[in-house]
Amino acid sequence: MAEPEVATKAPENDATEQSLFPNDSRAQEGLSMGEHCVKDRPAPSDVSPTGEISKIADIDVYIAKPSDYPHSPSKLLLFLSSGTGIHSRNNQLQADQYATKGFLVLMPDQFGGDPAPNTTSHNAPQEENPTVIEQVKVKAAETVQSFMLDMWLARQTQEKVLPILTKVVESAKDEFADAVANGGGIYAVGYCFGGKYVLLLAAELPHTVAQGQKQEDEEQGIVKKEPLIKAGAIAHGTLVTKRDFEAIKSPISMVCVENDQLFPDEVREAGKAYFEENHIEHEIKVYSGMPHGFAVVGEYEDAKIQSAQQSAFTQMVAWLEGH
């Protein structure tokens, strides 16, 4: 695997902060999601999820705890998944991995019981020599699936997702006060769809936006809400726009894919520029030759991808542990 390109912490001057989401706060404003965001790779067969799904603020949450919790100190980590959601075995195993590093992990159902349509693994068999009719059927099915995904994305707005996350965070501060106190705040990781919302939780948002309302008039006095997380790390985010960086205040680490159409270079560079101009501690690593979604738990035949997957996890854990 080629060494990831690293860009870190080189701030020089301040920039005037722009108002966030002046007219539109649609979650689907950025580029659409890819196959890796809505389908799981084959999961490792020799391990099973160790956490459980429970209710926090009446929201389903997958909870993974360190084996020695609460007897040993832990830190609270919010885990925001791809479109496959909290019932994905891959996502649960990923959350469990963070628990083995000493984090008490909460993976909320940020989709409100509405995960991406046709969320499946990559285990479906493929015909070696499909007939013309079979090819037409496959193409038609792909068209329908693409339409369903677009409709699903239209439902996953910030007005829907942010209140869910805010409720979980606020309730977790009481229910897991020991872990929050031990870490000096709440940490967050996000993959694909979840990456965008880690950036938003790391931002000083207008109070109404943080509560899931659109900001209608940027000329009026705006009461801003402090970031809900102490530090965050994201891997191959999707639907991220340049504006999503505009009010970030918390340290951020980003796992990026070279030539990623779902997280374009111009968006990544805009984020880097914002971090540097506003003295925001950050880390950006670009992994070459990797598919979008590579950092999510899943098996690949290519050993280079498996190695990069572990490197990305190590990067994100190290960032959280260092903050």
Describe it for me?
- The structure is a single chain.
- The protein has nine helices and 13 strands.
- By secondary structure, it is of the alpha/beta class.
- A nine-stranded mixed β-sheet has the order 1-13-12-11-8-5-6-4-3, with helices on both faces. Strands 2-7 form a two-stranded parallel ribbon.
- It starts with a strand and ends with a helix.
- Mean pLDDT is 82; it is low at 8-31, 120-127 and 140-144.
SS class: alpha/beta
Question: What's the overall average pLDDT, rounded?
Answer: 82
Radius of gyration: 19 Å
- Strand tally is 13
Which descriptors apply to this entry?
323 residues; two-stranded parallel sheet; globular; 34% helix; alpha/beta; nine-stranded mixed sheet; 9 helices; 18% strand
Quick summary:
The protein is of the alpha/beta class.
Topology at a glance:
Elements (H helix, E strand, L loop, with lengths): L4 E4 L26 H4 E2 L11 E5 L2 E6 L10 E6 L8 H11 L3 E6 L11 E2 L10 H24 L2 H18 L1 H7 L3 E5 L1 H9 L3 E2 H4 L13 E2 L5 E5 L16 E6 L7 H13 L4 E6 L15 H19 L2
Parallel strand pairs: 2-7, 5-6, 5-8, 8-11, 11-12, 12-13
Antiparallel strand pairs: 1-13, 3-4, 4-6, 9-10
